[in-house]
Design brief:
The chain has a domain at about 265-460: Orthogonal Bundle (nitrate reductase domain fold). The protein is about 30% helix and about 15% strand. The chain has about 500 residues and is α+β, with helices and mostly antiparallel strands. The protein starts with a strand and ends in a 25-residue tail after the last helix.
């Protein structure tokens, strides 16, 4: 067992309101500069929809991620030993600027200099790349809130798996059958972008697993852009270098959450430390497609297991990291409650960003126009959902409906549990049956509700101490806040800021 530490994230989609505050905060922090105008390290997509860049999920076209060859060995979909060198100079599978959008601004001075006229003057849109006037035909979220329209939804690669009845159900109420999907770099444990880089510029930080690009080593080959199945590596046309989300590691290192996490209006974002077994990654990623969710969970380790703790300490993981992993909200959502699922696990990159699938608008359709209270039929509404279960399975469980359905049952059971405690209109025996059928206890239902409803930053962000002085000395606290769990006395702590 090779125990390592990793920063991990959970996005709770039931709470996302699609406000794009996260995208704007990231944009103004990291990509508001020449060459990066078209980059959105954080973006929020409306699903079903084509996303950003357009049709990024279509790996038959973009060829990202890993696949199993005929010998059941993992190999990059984007390149192999025979075509590696030619693709350095021309790669037909890379997204072009039209697949993102050509960034633009406006000639605002025209509003001031326009001569007196009966017509209202307008600012002409101009390209931020060429400076020439352009006709705007696309943007970073061009189909925002329009997934209920067949014009956009039917082009979604996941949409093709639905039956005609499911498609009709999706469009039964115009522009309602949709969900928001915020995306950042997944900082995968088995990143295809790192494996594809010919210059070795991409790498994972050993202390926390964050994937970064060494700008000094990058030669702009853009193999990483093709290899990333989530298309979260970008090419800066001004500097000739690749760039990507860095998970705001300067903030993380000082105990602050990333900018997009900090500004999230819906409080949908959770962050915490995870321990995983690096020796299991390759075998887990070779699992059959329908078993990839459980295979990925098998890589993640219980931070309270004495054997795991002993091996973690042997590998140099500090007590602070171990303590943070034990209190991590991500471990609860992913492994303990099994509510959070990886985005497109069939790409086999082992993403360390997980999503709690949305119960609404799944529950937005019922023949009786109310949610059933009968314990025997309460979960049938999930199978009659307006946003089909199969579509969610294509997103979060490689087409396997069971992991999504089990998560939905638990989310619905929590709602009935809370309804019972506040309104008292559900009989105790029925409530017990609902919880039992969902596979959770009353204590777990209460814990899920508490961490979902209005959690504070101290509950959502279990930040491990990775400041230099703490990581070196192996302590998780400061001299004035020592809890006795770090193994150091209050007088032996290294002073902060030195």
């Amino acid at each position: 067992m090779d125990v390592r530490a990793h920063i991990s994230m959970v996005f709770h989609l039931d709470k996302c309101i699609g406000c794009h505050t996260c995208s704007v905060s990231c944009k103004h922090t990291w990509t508001d500069r020449p060459g990066a105008e078209y980059m959105w390290w954080n973006n929020v997509e409306t699903k079903p929809g084509t996303g950003y860049p357009t049709l990024w999920e279509d790996q038959l076209n973009y060829k990202g991620g890993w696949v199993l060859d005929k010998n059941r060995e993992l190999k990059l979909r984007s390149q192999d030993k025979t075509d590696f060198f030619p693709k350095l100079f021309y790669n037909p599978n890379q997204p072009g600027l039209d697949d993102y959008y050509e960034p633009w601004t406006y000639r605002y001075q025209d509003l001031f200099d326009a001569p007196l006229s009966k017509d209202q003057p307008t600012a002409i849109p101009v390209s931020q790349i060429t400076g020439e006037p352009i006709h705007i035909e696309a943007g970073p979220n061009w189909d925002d809130d329009l997934s209920g329209s067949p014009l956009y939804a039917e082009n979604d690669p996941n949409f093709q798996s639905l039956t005609p009845d499911e498609k009709e159900m999706l469009f039964s109420v115009e522009r309602i059958s949709m969900m928001y999907l915020p995306r950042i770099c997944n900082h995968c444990a088995n990143p295809s972008c790192v494996a594809s880089c010919p210059s070795g510029a991409l790498y994972k930080r050993g202390e926390d697993g964050i994937v970064l690009v060494n700008q000094d080593k990058c030669r702009g080959w853009r193999a990483c852009v093709t290899a990333c199945p989530y298309k979260k590596v970008y090419y800066n046309w001004k500097t000739g270098k690749s760039e990507k989300c860095i998970l705001c590691y300067p903030r993380v290192e000082t105990g602050q959450p990333p900018a997009c996490f900090h500004t999230c209006v819906g409080r949908i974002r959770y962050m915490g430390a995870m321990l995983y077994d690096a020796e299991r990654i390759e075998e887990a990623m070779k699992a059959p497609q329908e078993g990839l969710v459980e295979a990925q969970r098998s890589v993640l380790l219980d931070p309270c297991d004495p054997e795991v703790i002993a091996q973690a300490q042997k590998n140099g993981i500090s007590p602070g990291w171990i303590e943070s992993a034990q209190r991590s909200p991500v471990f609860k959502y992913v492994c303990e409650w099994k509510l959070a699922l990886p985005l497109h696990p069939e790409f086999r990159t082992l993403p360390m960003l997980y999503y709690v699938p949305p119960l609404l608008p799944v529950m937005g359709r019922s023949e009786s126009n109310i949610y059933e209270h009968d314990a025997d039929t309460v979960f049938t509404s999930i199978d009659k959902a307006r946003l089909p279960m199969k579509y969610l399975a294509m997103l979060f469980s490689a087409g396997n409906i069971e992991p999504v359905r089990e998560a939905m049952k638990k989310l619905l059971a929590v709602r009935f549990f809370q309804r019972s405690s506040t309104l008292g209109d559900i009989e105790p025996d029925r409530l017990k049956k609902i919880l039992r059928d969902a596979g959770i206890s009353e204590a777990q239902a209460q814990a899920i509700y508490a961490l979902t409803a209005l959690p504070g930053p101290e509950d959502r962000f279990m930040m491990p101490p990775i400041q230099r002085e703490e990581s070196i000395e192996g302590t998780s606290c400061s001299p004035d806040k020592c809890k006795g769990t770090c193994g150091l006395g209050k007088t032996e702590h290294p002073q902060r800021g030195l």
